[in-house]
Backbone:
C-alpha cells in the first residue's frame, strides 16, 4: 500500500508533523497547548465568575477532497482510533465520518460496564489493557469520564456456571487480573438486596467477583475522545453517510459520501450494527449477524447497589448510577434485526428476572427502554485488522462488549494502521481465523457478556 | 411482539418460535473445501431488507417453516413450509 | 429534606378548602387523615395526596435535585414534577394523581440538606458553577481524589427510598384482543369508543385519570352535562370495556400495546398486553409551562392546575393572583379564580403582546415583575401560554410529528400506519362538537378496519369449524361498514410563547435551565439528541412531557434555527413509569418433577436444580452411596434422561447421519452408545440407543440435551430429508427411569422381573429387553453401565414409577440396596472415566478432543460434523481429554483448576475431579494440549489457592476397572419373582378429595359442583397417531389439525398437529385403543405409527363460564368464538409451558350430552413432568374467580 503509506510516513497535509510512536498513557493531548481551553475546577470557577463562554468541544469542517485515513463510524471505536493515530503516531490528517451524530450508536446505547475478567488469556490481556486506559482516560483526555470502580459480580445459579466462573477466575489470576469465586455469604455482604436463600427457583451458588470492574459515563468517553481528537487536528464529520467505497485492483482508493467523495488509501470500518453493510461496500464478507440488544433504566432511588451484578442464567445485568437510576441490560434479542424499536417481551423478562434476584425492587418503576445493534460473531470475539482488500481495515464484530474495548481497540487499530503490522494484542482477532476454523476460545463457555 | 405467519397454525406470537437462521444450503460434505464449508458454518448475508429464514414452531405445530422477513421493520410474509 | 424544613416552608396551616363545587370529586361525608412529613393532614375520599396537602395550606412539596430550590405544585396531576413523593415504602409516587387514603405516611424525598453546608450558598454557587456538564469539566486531577468526589456527588441522588423488607406483592398480567383500543377517555376518546362499538367492534377504553371525562371534568355546567351524557352512554355499551386509572404505556410492532391498570383490589398494578386491531390515540393536550426567571417558584401554576384544584378538589390555590393568558383556557381560569374568591390582581394577555419578566420570591411567589419593571404583589402566578401534544404513542408507531408554527405545537405527521389513528385535540383544534365529530368518524373507521383485518386473519385459522360464525358485522368479502369521511380539524392560530426575556427552568425534574441549554449549544452539543444527553434535559421522571418542546425551542433559539428544523428527540417507551412488579407479573418458571419425587422427599434427598428438573443430589452421604453401588446395589432416579421413540424404515439411516459411529448393523435387542456432533465437529450430545423392533428404536439423550436433540433430529428430517420415513415421538416422561447398579443388581431385578431371562448369555452387556416389572407391563430394560457396574436401566410407564421404585427398595432391603443421587453418579462415572458432555467438553471441543477416536467412523459417507473431523484428524489440532491423577492423592484439584507449563503458560484444565471412595485418592479428567496428553506425562496443576501440585496423565480415562471386568458377575440361580403389591398408577396431580382407585389409577373423588373447576383427567387412555396429514389415515381418523371430535366409540379424536392425532378414551383402555388404532391405520397401508402416551401426558380439564378469563391470564391466544370455537384444538404456550388445548364444552364435568346449556370447557395437557406446574399456574390464575379443584370426574364403576 505504497500510496497510502507515503502520505502517512510524511505526516499529514494539515501541517502536524508526525511525532512518531508514543504508546502508553501520555498526559494530555499532544500537539498544542490546552491551557486556554482545558477543563479543571479552576477553569470552571473562572468561567463561572466571568460568565465567559466555553469553547466548542469540537469544530465543524468542510469535507476535504482527501485524507490519509478515513474512519467510518463516529462512536468510541472510531474516535479512539483517530485520537491514537494522531497522538501516538502523528497521523493527524484523519476524518471520522458519522451518518448521524457522534456517539449515537452503540456508544450511546450501551450500559457502560467495564471489566476484564474474560475466559481466554488473549481476551483477558486485551480487556485488561482497555481497563488500564480507562483508569487514566480522564487525565489523558482532560475530560472526566466519571470512571466508577464498583466491583463486578457474575452470579452462578448452577454447577455448570459455577465451574465456568472458576475457570474464568483461574485464567484471570494467571494473567494477573483480580478475580475470585466467592460464596453466597460473601455475596450477601456485597449486595444485601440479593436473595441468596437456597429455596428460590435459581439459587445463587456463588459468583465470580472482579473488584476492578465498574461503570463509566459513556457519553463522556465519546465527547472526551472527540474533543481531544479535534484538538489534534482530526476532522469530525457528523451527518455524513458513506454511500460507497472505491476499490481498484484490490486496493482502497476512496469513499463516497452524501456530502461528496473523498480520496484516501485507508478506510477503517469502525461501525457497529451496520458493519456487514459497510464491509459489503468494499466487497468484503463478514461472519457477522446483527442482533438488537436492549436496555432499560428505572427512576432514581437513593443509592443501595454499589456493585455491578450480572446473572448469565437469568440473562440480566444491573448497576446503579451516581444519579440513583438502575440501569438494566440483558442478552441480545432472540433473532436478528436492524430494528431499534425494542420489545415489551424484553422488559417483561427483565423485570421478572430482576425480581427473582432482588424481590424488594417490585415497587421501583421502569422509566425508559431502548435498544442498540450488536454485531455477533461465531466465537464471541471481535474481528480486527486487515482484510483481503488492501487499505480496508475492520474493527467490528463487537457483540455486546464493544464499549469496554473502546480505548484498547483505538490504540491497537492505530498501531496496526501506522506500522502496517498487526499488534500482538489483537493477533488472535483476525478475519482469517474463520477460514482456518481457528476460533477464539471465548465460545468455550458462552455466558452472557457485560 | 410480532407475529409469524405459521402456514399450519396461522399467525402466532414470535415467542412461540425458535429462530433457526437465514436459509443456507449445505455443501456436499464429500467435496466441500474448508473455505466453502466454513462459509456455510459462519457466514450469513445479514442483509438489511427482506431475507429468507427458517423458524421452528416449538410451542405450536413443531414444524420448521420458512418465511420472509424485512429485517428493519420486522414485517413478515409466508414463503411456504421449509423444504 | 428533613421534615423540620418542610414545616418551616408552610405558609399557613389554615384550610384552603372551598365550598362545594359543581364538578368536585371529593366525598365530604367521608373524611380521614394521613401523615404528611410527620404531620396529620385531613382529607376527603376522592382527594389526591396533593389536593389534600394543598387544602391544608402547604405550598412546598419538594426541593429540586441539583440546585435545591423549593418546588410546589405546577400541574396538579400525574405529571407534576414537584410533587413526586415517598408513600410508605413506595418511592417516587405521583402524589398529584395518587388518591389519598387513611393512614398513609407521605414524605418529601430530598437528601441535599444532609450535606453540611449552607443551602443558600449552594444555590448561589449552583446557578453559576453547576453549569451543564460540570462533572465532565472537573474532578479530573488528581485521579485518586475522584472516588472521594464521587461519593459526595452520589449524595445528590434524591428521589425515594426502597426497603429491603418490601414484599413482592401480587402483581399480574392478562392478554386482551380488542378490535379497537382508545387511549384517552376525554370527550374525543369516549366518542370514538362509542362509534367503534356501534360499528360492532370490541373496544377497550383506557384513561389515565380515576374517572372518564378529561377536561370536561373541570368545565362549566354545559361541559358537565355533556360529560354525564357520554359517561352513561359508555356505561350502557356492552362491548366497551372501560379501564380508568390505566395508561397505554407503549405501542410495539404489530399493534402490541402495553396497558397498565392501577390500584385493583389486591393487585397494585396489572399489565395488560393487548393485540389491538386499530389503536386510536386520543390523549388531548398537555399544558406547557413558560420559561422565565422564577418559573419554578412555588405558587407559579399552569391554568389547568388551578382549574383542577378549584373544580375537582375545591381547593383555593392562592389568595392574590396574576394571570398570563394566551388562550381561552387562561380566560376560563381567571373566571374560576374569581369564583373561588381569589383576588385576580392583574391579567396579562399574551394575545395582545403582554409578557412577564420574572417572579420574585423563593419558597413562594411574592411578586410578578412585568416588562418596564412594574411589580405586582401576588402569591399566585398562573400561566396559560400553550400546549404540548403528547405524541408518544404516535411516535412509537413510526410517525414523526411535525411542528406547526401556526398552532405553536406539534401535530401528527403523515407517517402513521393504517392501524393507528389520532382523534380529537391532538389532531387539531375546534370546539367540543367539532372534536366529537372528528372522533366519531375516526372511531367508526377504526372499527371498520379492525373488523376487516380480524375477519381476514380469522378465516385462515385451522381451529375454526366450517360452520364457525363470522366476525360481527363482517360477513362476506365486503368491509364491515363503509368508511366515513374524517373531517379535518382546523388549526387555530396560537401565540408562540416559549421563553420570556429572562432565563428560567426548562426541565423541572432535572433542574436544567434555558441558559444551560444555550451554553451546551455553544459548546457544540447543538442537536436535540446531543443537548439532551449533555444537559440530561427530558431524561428525568417527567420524560419530556412538560419540557421537551421548551427544550427544542430554546435550542432552536440558541442555534438560530427553527423548532421545525431542530425537531424533537424520539419518545421511547414507557409513556409513564411502570413498576417492575407489573412488568414481571406472576413469574412463570416451569419446573419438572419425576414420579418418584414423593419417595425422594421421604428419604430426605437434598434437591438439586438441574435445568427445569428438581433432582436428588444425594441422600446424605454420597461416598456411602458410591460404596453401596460398588459393593452391593444402588438405585438412582434417571427419569430426566431424554428419550425419543423412533419408528420407521429409515431410522438406521437417520442414526448413521446423527451419530459419529455406525448403526446399520445394530440388531434387534441391542443397544449402542453414540455421540452426536454439530456441523463444526463439536460434540453436541451423547447417549445410548436401543433397537426394540425391526423399525422401532428408543434413543436416549442427556437430560439437558433432550429438547435440543429432538429439535436437531426434526431439523434433519424436515429440512434435509423430508423423504425419509421416520416418526419421532418424545417419551422422556412417558417412562420413569431407574438405574439399578451394582454387583447384586441382577439379583434384585430378578426378584421383580417377569418374562425376561437375566442370565449373562440371554441378556448380555449392551442389550435391551421388554417385559413386566413388579407387575407392571410394557417396561423396557437396558443393560448398560454408566457407573461401570453391572446395571440395568429400567424404563417403566411413568404412572407406575413410584410403585416400582418402592418395590425395588422393599425387595432389595436384604441386599443392602441404597438409593443414590446425582453426586454419587458423578463420582461413579468419573471413576469409570465416562465423560459428561458440557463438563468434560465445551463449546469448542471436537470429537477427537473428547477421546472419542474409537467411535468416529470417517469411512461413513456423511454424518453431522464429519467434514470438520476429517480435517481435525489430519492436523491433529485441539486439546485432548485425558485421565489425570495428582501425585499426592489426598489433594483434589477443584474443577477448572488450570494446568500450566513454564511461565504459567496455560496447557489445559481439570474438567472433572473428585475424591474416589473406591480408590481412596483423588481422580480427575482433564483437557490438555495434545503434546502433553501421552500417558505418564507429568503435569503441573495450579490450584485456586495459588499452590502448584504435580499430577500425572493416566493410561486410561477410566480410573477404576478399565478392562470392564466388573460387568462379569457371578450368577446365582435365577430367583423366584417376589410377590409385589398390586400396581397402582398415579397421575402427577395430587388427588382432590378422598383418594380411591379407578381402573387401577389413584384419583380423588371430589365433585364440588362449583361454577369454575379444575379437575384431573390424567387416567384417560391417550394414544398418539402419526401419518401423512393429507393421506388416507387422515381421512379415516376424521378431524384435521386444529379440530377434534368424538368417534363412533365415543373416543375423543384430536387433530393435535399436522399429521398428528391424539385419541382420548376411558381409563385403562389404552392397550385396546392402541390395537384398534393400529388396525385402523394398517388397513390404510400408509406409513403410520401408533404410540401409547397414556403415561406421558398430564391431562386436566378447566370448566366454567369464566374459564376463558382464567386462560386470558396465562395464554396469549384469542379464545373468542370466531377463533377458538367449540371443538377447536391447538398447541400453544400456557404460563410459558408448551401445552395442548382442546375446547369441548360440557353440561356436566367430564361428560358430553346432547342439547342443554353448554359451559366453556377446555382440556389442557402437557408433558407429564410439568403437570403439577401447569395445575398450580391455572389455580393461581383462577384464584380471583374462586376456582375449585375437583377429582377425576368419572362414574365409579369397578370396586
Residues:
Amino acid at each position: 500500500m505504497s500510496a497510502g503509506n507515503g502520505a502517512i510516513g510524511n505526516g499529514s497535509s494539515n501541517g502536524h508533523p508526525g511525532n512518531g510512536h508514543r504508546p502508553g498513557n501520555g498526559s494530555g493531548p499532544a500537539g498544542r497547548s490546552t491551557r486556554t481551553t482545558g477543563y479543571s475546577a479552576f477553569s470552571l470557577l473562572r468561567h463561572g465568575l466571568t460568565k465567559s463562554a466555553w469553547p466548542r468541544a469540537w469544530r465543524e469542517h468542510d469535507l476535504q477532497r482527501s485524507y490519509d485515513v478515513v474512519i467510518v463510524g463516529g462512536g468510541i471505536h472510531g474516535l479512539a482510533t483517530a485520537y491514537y493515530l494522531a497522538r501516538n503516531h502523528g497521523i493527524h490528517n484523519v476524518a471520522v465520518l458519522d451518518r448521524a451524530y457522534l456517539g449515537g450508536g452503540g456508544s450511546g446505547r450501551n450500559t457502560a460496564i467495564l471489566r476484564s475478567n474474560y475466559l481466554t488469556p488473549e481476551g483477558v490481556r486485551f480487556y485488561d489493557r482497555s481497563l488500564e486506559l480507562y483508569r487514566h482516560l480522564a487525565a489523558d483526555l482532560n475530560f472526566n469520564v466519571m470512571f466508577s470502580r464498583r466491583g463486578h459480580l457474575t452470579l452462578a445459579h448452577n454447577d455448570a456456571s459455577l465451574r465456568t466462573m472458576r475457570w474464568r477466575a483461574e485464567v484471570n489470576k494467571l494473567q494477573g487480573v483480580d478475580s475470585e469465586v466467592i460464596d453466597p455469604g460473601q455475596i450477601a455482604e456485597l449486595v444485601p438486596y440479593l436473595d441468596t436463600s437456597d429455596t428460590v427457583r435459581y439459587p445463587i451458588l456463588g459468583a465470580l467477583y472482579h473488584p476492578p470492574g465498574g461503570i463509566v459515563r459513556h457519553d463522556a468517553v465519546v465527547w472526551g475522545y472527540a474533543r481531544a481528537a479535534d484538538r489534534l487536528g482530526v476532522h469530525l464529520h457528523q451527518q455524513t453517510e458513506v454511500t460507497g467505497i472505491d476499490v481498484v485492483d484490490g486496493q482502497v482508493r476512496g469513499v463516497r459520501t452524501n456530502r461528496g467523495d473523498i480520496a484516501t488509501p485507508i478506510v477503517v470500518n469502525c461501525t457497529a450494527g451496520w458493519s456487514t453493510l459497510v464491509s459489503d461496500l468494499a466487497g468484503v464478507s463478514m461472519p457477522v449477524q446483527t442482533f438488537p440488544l436492549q436496555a432499560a433504566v428505572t427512576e432514581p432511588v437513593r443509592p443501595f447497589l454499589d456493585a455491578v451484578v450480572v446473572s448469565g442464567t437469568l440473562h440480566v445485568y444491573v448497576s446503579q448510577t451516581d444519579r440513583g437510576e438502575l440501569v438494566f441490560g440483558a442478552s441480545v434479542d432472540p433473532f436478528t434485526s436492524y430494528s431499534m424499536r425494542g420489545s415489551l417481551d424484553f422488559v417483561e423478562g427483565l423485570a421478572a428476572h430482576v425480581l427473582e434476584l432482588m424481590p424488594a425492587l417490585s415497587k421501583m418503576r421502569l422509566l425508559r427502554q431502548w435498544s442498540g445493534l450488536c454485531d455477533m460473531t461465531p466465537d464471541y470475539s471481535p474481528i480486527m485488522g486487515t482484510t483481503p482488500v488492501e487499505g480496508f481495515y475492520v474493527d467490528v464484530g463487537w457483540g455486546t462488549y464493544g464499549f469496554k474495548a473502546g480505548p484498547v481497540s483505538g490504540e491497537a487499530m492505530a498501531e496496526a494502521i501506522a506500522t502496517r503490522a498487526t499488534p500482538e494484542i489483537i493477533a488472535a482477532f483476525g478475519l482469517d481465523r474463520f477460514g482456518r476454523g481457528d476460533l477464539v476460545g471465548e465460545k468455550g463457555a458462552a455466558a452472557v457478556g457485560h | 411482539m410480532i407475529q409469524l405467519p405459521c402456514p399450519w397454525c396461522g399467525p402466532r406470537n414470535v415467542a412461540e418460535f425458535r429462530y433457526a437462521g437465514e436459509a443456507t444450503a449445505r455443501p456436499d460434505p464429500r467435496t466441500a473445501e474448508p473455505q466453502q464449508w466454513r462459509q456455510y458454518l459462519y457466514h450469513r448475508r445479514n442483509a438489511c431488507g427482506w431475507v429468507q429464514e427458517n423458524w421452528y414452531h416449538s410451542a405450536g405445530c413443531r414444524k420448521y417453516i420458512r418465511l420472509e422477513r424485512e429485517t428493519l421493520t420486522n414485517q413478515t410474509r409466508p414463503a411456504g413450509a421449509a423444504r | 429534606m428533613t421534615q423540620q424544613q418542610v414545616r418551616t416552608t408552610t405558609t399557613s396551616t389554615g384550610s384552603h378548602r372551598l365550598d362545594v363545587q359543581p364538578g368536585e370529586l371529593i366525598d365530604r361525608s367521608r373524611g380521614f387523615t394521613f401523615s404528611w412529613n410527620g404531620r396529620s393532614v385531613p382529607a376527603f375520599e376522592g382527594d389526591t395526596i396533593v389536593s389534600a396537602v394543598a387544602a391544608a395550606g402547604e405550598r412546598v412539596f419538594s426541593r429540586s435535585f441539583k440546585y435545591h430550590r423549593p418546588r410546589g405544585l405546577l400541574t396538579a396531576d400525574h405529571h407534576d414534577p414537584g410533587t413526586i413523593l415517598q408513600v410508605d415504602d413506595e418511592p417516587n409516587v405521583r402524589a398529584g394523581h395518587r388518591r389519598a387514603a387513611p393512614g398513609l405516611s407521605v414524605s418529601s424525598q430530598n437528601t441535599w440538606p444532609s450535606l453540611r453546608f449552607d443551602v443558600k450558598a449552594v444555590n448561589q454557587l449552583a446557578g453559576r458553577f453547576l453549569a451543564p456538564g460540570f462533572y465532565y469539566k472537573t474532578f479530573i486531577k488528581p485521579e485518586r481524589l475522584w472516588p472521594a468526589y464521587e461519593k459526595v456527588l452520589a449524595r445528590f441522588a434524591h428521589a425515594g427510598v426502597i426497603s429491603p423488607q418490601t414484599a413482592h406483592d401480587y402483581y399480574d398480567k392478562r392478554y386482551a384482543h380488542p378490535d379497537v383500543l382508545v387511549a384517552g377517555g376525554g370527550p374525543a376518546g369516549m366518542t370514538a369508543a362509542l362509534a367503534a362499538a356501534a360499528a360492532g367492534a370490541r373496544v377497550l377504553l383506557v384513561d389515565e385519570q380515576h374517572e372518564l371525562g378529561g377536561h370536561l371534568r373541570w368545565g362549566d355546567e354545559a361541559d358537565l352535562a355533556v360529560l354525564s351524557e357520554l359517561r352513561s352512554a359508555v356505561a350502557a355499551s356492552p362491548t366497551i370495556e372501560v379501564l380508568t386509572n390505566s395508561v397505554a404505556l407503549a405501542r410495539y410492532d404489530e399493534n402490541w400495546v402495553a396497558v397498565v391498570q392501577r390500584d385493583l383490589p389486591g393487585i397494585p398494578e396489572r399489565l395488560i398486553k393487548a393485540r389491538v386491531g386499530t389503536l386510536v390515540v386520543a390523549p388531548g393536550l398537555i399544558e406547557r409551562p413558560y420559561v422565565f426567571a422564577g418559573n419554578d417558584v412555588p405558587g407559579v401554576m399552569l391554568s389547568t392546575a388551578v382549574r383542577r384544584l378549584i373544580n375537582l378538589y375545591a381547593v383555593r390555590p392562592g389568595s392574590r393572583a396574576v394571570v398570563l393568558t394566551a388562550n381561552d383556557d387562561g380566560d376560563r381560569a381567571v373566571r374560576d379564580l374569581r369564583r373561588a374568591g381569589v383576588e385576580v390582581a392583574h391579567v396579562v394577555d399574551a394575545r395582545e403582546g403582554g409578557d412577564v419578566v420574572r417572579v420574585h420570591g423563593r419558597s413562594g411567589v411574592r411578586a410578578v415583575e412585568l416588562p418596564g419593571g412594574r411589580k405586582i404583589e401576588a402569591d399566585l402566578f398562573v400561566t396559560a401560554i400553550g400546549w404540548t401534544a403528547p405524541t408518544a404513542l404516535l411516535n412509537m408507531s413510526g410517525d414523526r410529528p411535525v411542528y406547526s408554527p401556526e398552532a405553536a405545537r406539534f401535530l401528527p405527521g403523515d407517517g402513521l400506519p393504517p392501524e393507528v389513528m389520532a382523534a380529537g385535540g391532538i389532531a387539531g383544534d375546534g370546539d367540543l362538537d367539532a372534536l366529537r365529530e372528528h372522533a366519531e368518524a375516526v372511531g367508526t373507521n377504526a372499527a371498520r378496519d379492525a373488523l376487516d383485518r380480524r375477519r381476514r386473519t380469522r378465516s385462515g385459522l385451522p381451529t375454526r369449524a366450517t360452520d364457525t360464525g363470522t366476525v360481527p358485522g363482517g360477513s362476506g368479502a365486503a368491509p364491515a361498514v363503509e368508511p366515513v369521511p374524517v373531517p379535518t380539524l382546523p388549526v387555530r392560530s396560537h401565540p408562540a410563547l416559549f421563553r420570556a426575556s429572562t432565563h428560567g427552568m426548562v426541565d423541572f425534574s432535572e433542574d436544567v435551565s434555558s441558559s444551560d441549554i444555550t451554553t451546551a449549544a455553544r459548546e457544540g452539543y447543538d442537536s436535540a439528541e446531543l443537548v439532551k444527553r449533555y444537559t440530561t434535559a427530558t431524561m428525568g421522571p417527567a420524560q419530556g412531557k412538560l419540557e421537551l418542546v421548551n427544550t427544542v425551542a430554546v435550542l432552536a433559539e440558541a442555534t438560530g434555527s427553527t423548532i421545525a428544523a431542530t425537531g424533537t428527540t424520539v419518545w421511547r417507551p414507557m409513556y409513564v413509569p411502570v413498576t417492575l412488579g407489573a412488568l414481571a407479573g406472576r413469574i412463570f418458571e416451569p419446573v419438572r418433577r419425576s414420579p418418584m419425587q414423593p419417595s425422594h422427599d421421604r428419604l430426605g434427598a437434598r434437591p438439586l436444580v438441574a435445568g427445569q428438573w428438581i433432582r436428588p443430589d444425594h441422600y446424605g452421604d454420597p461416598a456411602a452411596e458410591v460404596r453401596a453401588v460398588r459393593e452391593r446395589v444402588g438405585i438412582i432416579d434417571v427419569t430426566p434422561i431424554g428419550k425419543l421413540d423412533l419408528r420407521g424404515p429409515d431410522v438406521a439411516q437417520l442414526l448413521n447421519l446423527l451419530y459419529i459411529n455406525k448403526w446399520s448393523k445394530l440388531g434387534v435387542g441391542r443397544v449402542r452408545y453414540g455421540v452426536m456432533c454439530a456441523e463444526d465437529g463439536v460434540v453436541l450430545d451423547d447417549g445410548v440407543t436401543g433397537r426394540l423392533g425391526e423399525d422401532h428404536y428408543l434413543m436416549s439423550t442427556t437430560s439437558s440435551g433432550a429438547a435440543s436433540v429432538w429439535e436437531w433430529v426434526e431439523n434433519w428430517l424436515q429440512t434435509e430429508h423430508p423423504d425419509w420415513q421416520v416418526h419421532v415421538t418424545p417419551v422422556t416422561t412417558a417412562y420413569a427411569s431407574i438405574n439399578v447398579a451394582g454387583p447384586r443388581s441382577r439379583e434384585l431385578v430378578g426378584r421383580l422381573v417377569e418374562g425376561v431371562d437375566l442370565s449373562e448369555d440371554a441378556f448380555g452387556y449392551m442389550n435391551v429387553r421388554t417385559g413386566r416389572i413388579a407387575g407392571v407391563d410394557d417396561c423396557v430394560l437396558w443393560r448398560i453401565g454408566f457407573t461401570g457396574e453391572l446395571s440395568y436401566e429400567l424404563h417403566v410407564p411413568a404412572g407406575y414409577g413410584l410403585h416400582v421404585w418402592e418395590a425395588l427398595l422393599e425387595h432389595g432391603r436384604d441386599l443392602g440396596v441404597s438409593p443414590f443421587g446425582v453426586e454419587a453418579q458423578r463420582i461413579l462415572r468419573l471413576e469409570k472415566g465416562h465423560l459428561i458432555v458440557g463438563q468434560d467438553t465445551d463449546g469448542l471441543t471436537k470429537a477427537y478432543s473428547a477421546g472419542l477416536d474409537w467411535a468416529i467412523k470417517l469411512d461413513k459417507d456423511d454424518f453431522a460434523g464429519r467434514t470438520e473431523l476429517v480435517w481435525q484428524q489430519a492436523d491433529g489440532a485441539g486439546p485432548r481429554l485425558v485421565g489425570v491423577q495428582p501425585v499426592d492423592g489426598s489433594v483434589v484439584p477443584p474443577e477448572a483448576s488450570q494446568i500450566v507449563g513454564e511461565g504459567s503458560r496455560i496447557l489445559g484444565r481439570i474438567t472433572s475431579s473428585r475424591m474416589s471412595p473406591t480408590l481412596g485418592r483423588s481422580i480427575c479428567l482433564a483437557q490438555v494440549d495434545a503434546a502433553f496428553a501421552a500417558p505418564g506425562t507429568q503435569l503441573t496443576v495450579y490450584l485456586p489457592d495459588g499452590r502448584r501440585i504435580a499430577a500425572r496423565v493416566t493410561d486410561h480415562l477410566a480410573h477404576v476397572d478399565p478392562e470392564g471386568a466388573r460387568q462379569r458377575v457371578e450368577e446365582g440361580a435365577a430367583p423366584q419373582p417376589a410377590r409385589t403389591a398390586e400396581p397402582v398408577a398415579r397421575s402427577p396431580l395430587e388427588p382432590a378429595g378422598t383418594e380411591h382407585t379407578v381402573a387401577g389409577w389413584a384419583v380423588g373423588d371430589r365433585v364440588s359442583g362449583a361454577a369454575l373447576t379444575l379437575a384431573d383427567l390424567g387416567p384417560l387412555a391417550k394414544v398418539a397417531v402419526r401419518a401423512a396429514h393429507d393421506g388416507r389415515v387422515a381421512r379415516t381418523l376424521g378431524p384435521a389439525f386444529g379440530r377434534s371430535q368424538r368417534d363412533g366409540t365415543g373416543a375423543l379424536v384430536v387433530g393435535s398437529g399436522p399429521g398428528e392425532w391424539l385419541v382420548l378414551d376411558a381409563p385403562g383402555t389404552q392397550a385396546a385403543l392402541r390395537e384398534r388404532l393400529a388396525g385402523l391405520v394398517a388397513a390404510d397401508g400408509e406409513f403410520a405409527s401408533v404410540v401409547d402416551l397414556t403415561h406421558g401426558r398430564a391431562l386436566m380439564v378447566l370448566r366454567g363460564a369464566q374459564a376463558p378469563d382464567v386462560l386470558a391470564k396465562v395464554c396469549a391466544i384469542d379464545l373468542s368464538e370466531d377463533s377458538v370455537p367449540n371443538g377447536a384444538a391447538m398447541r400453544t404456550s400456557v404460563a410459558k409451558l408448551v401445552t395442548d388445548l382442546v375446547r369441548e364444552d360440557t353440561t356436566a364435568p367430564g361428560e358430553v350430552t346432547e342439547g342443554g346449556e353448554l359451559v366453556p370447557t377446555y382440556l389442557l395437557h402437557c408433558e407429564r413432568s410439568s403437570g403439577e406446574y401447569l395445575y398450580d399456574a391455572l389455580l393461581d390464575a383462577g384464584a380471583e374467580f374462586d376456582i375449585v379443584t375437583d377429582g377425576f370426574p368419572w362414574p365409579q364403576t369397578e370396586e
Summary: The interface with chain B takes residues 274, 276-277, 285-290, 334-339, 343-345, 378, 434-437 of chain A (CB under 8 Å). Residues 159-174 of chain A form the longest helix (16 residues). Residues 433 and 439 of chain A are 6 Å apart (CA to CA).
